[in-house]
Amino acid sequence: MIISNKRNSNKLxxxxxxxxxxxxxxxxxxxxxxxxxALMRVLSxxxxxxxxxxxxxxxxxxxxxxxxxxxxVLFPLNSAANICxxxxxxxxxxxxxxxxxxxxxxxxxxxxNYFTDTVNxxxxxxxxxxxxxxxxxxxxxxKVIVKSSRSIQVEARSL
Length: 159
What we know:
By secondary structure, the chain is α+β, with helices and mostly antiparallel strands. The chain has one helix at about 1-75, and strands spanning about 85-90, 105-115, 120-135, 145-155.
């Protein structure tokens, strides 16, 4: 009879421990789900950061391109005339040149003749260029997710 009591007690112990495996596996599943969702959030944030970086670099290149175009207008090669336009806009996508890196970009430049040295006949100019780029068409009602703007400034003088 002692043997049968031990068997019954072993069955009772096993019956008590059968639910703990279920709880332990449920706990492991919950922990892995939380770790997976945290990893997805980190990857999503990283992708957005990279997209912002790329569009910011495109905006800087748009500002540089507009600044170079404005400097060509201000200091033409075959002329001594310095024409300082107050504001110019460049829509780089529709410029007729197929520059794929500047799609959905625009740039504006301003020129200011801030000082003229009449004694030495030297003019001083301050040019500012602002490039704006987005991840889609830049319209008023556009639902562009990422937009970026970069500005550069150049000071120049006539010779």
